[in-house]
Amino acid sequence: MDRSISTLGTSPAIRGAFVLAVVSLGVAGCASQDWSKEPLAVSVSAANYSEHSRAEVFLAVNDPGKVNPMPPEASVPSKPVFYGFVPGEILDSDTPLETVYRELAVALAHRGYFNIVYQAEAGLLPKRVDYLLKVHCGVRPWAIPTVRIDHVTWGDNGLSSNVRDPRSAAALLSGPGANPDSRAGETPEEAINLAMLLQTQNSAGTMGDGSSFAAQGASYASEGFSDGVVRRTYCLVVVEAFRFEDVWKKKDGARCVWATFIAVPLHSGQEFSSMLRTMVHAATPYFGETTNGLQTYQVPPGKVLVGNPVEVPATGAAPAPPEQAPPKAQ
Predict the structure, then answer these.
(1) 19-46 pLDDT, tens per residue?
(2) Which of 61, 77, 269, 296: CA 20 to 30 A from 257?
(3) How buried is 1 (Cβ within 10 angstroms: 0-12 exposed, 13-18 middle, 19+ buried)?
(4) Distance between CA atoms of 297 and 149, rounded to whole angstroms?
(5) Which of 79, 77, 86, 84 is nearest to 111 (CA)?
(6) Which domains, from first to last, does the chain contain?
């Protein structure tokens, strides 16, 4: 009997998450593995919503992923872009939010983005604010570490989408309003509850829409929560960019311009702080860009070495990127 694992029939995004899980395991599968000495499987998903239609974003995000791809050439805007950080969903971790901000500021400076607070602290207060960057970060269970494909707005820009699918297994279990973002995945308890519910129903019984449980059982098993992908624990950093003027005028209706989702599977003995710099460094070329599927890199683990953000004048031409890139994780 062939006992190999097949991903046929699953979506490219699911296959990308599967590849990420395999890469994160590497050659070591035993519980006693010293993960501090193993490469980190850093995945990056990004979308520039202002440059692509929703259909184009959907296709790009769900494109088959790549392992250790050549990163894109980092572009720099013709003039400095000034921004402020805003906290989003701040999850449990061993790292202060300010440390996450500092690490992101160093990386974003290489892309021509400069933080207004750090500029002001250096005596170089900008005369304008271009963007607000909402940051979600920390450790939490997740299934498919990709950016959202729906219309992310200032009033609905959490990690999970509010878009509901009434056909989902969550809707079957708890009603349409309980349907989660499919990227978030299912817990083992949710999977068990679903299996128990399907088994205990009479095969001739009907659902609320008149269709039989037997006829829809297979559909729920495959679509369910993230096509049946069970969640695992990730270290996450998600950045969502909004134009300051849009937020000022449209409030909750302001649309996200671009988003970047950075993730690393968390193993026993690892901490968010030991992976933060490596995660942000790997994602630097992708801020403001659109990836074709998950871009997964095997990079050495590192320590958080907080650098100083680059200082630029408040006016004038954009400065050249810093001569020295943030040090790679050792």
Answers:
(1) 455 445 443 444 456 666 778 899 999 9
(2) 296
(3) exposed
(4) 23
(5) 77
(6) 13-18+38-175+231-299 (3.40.50)
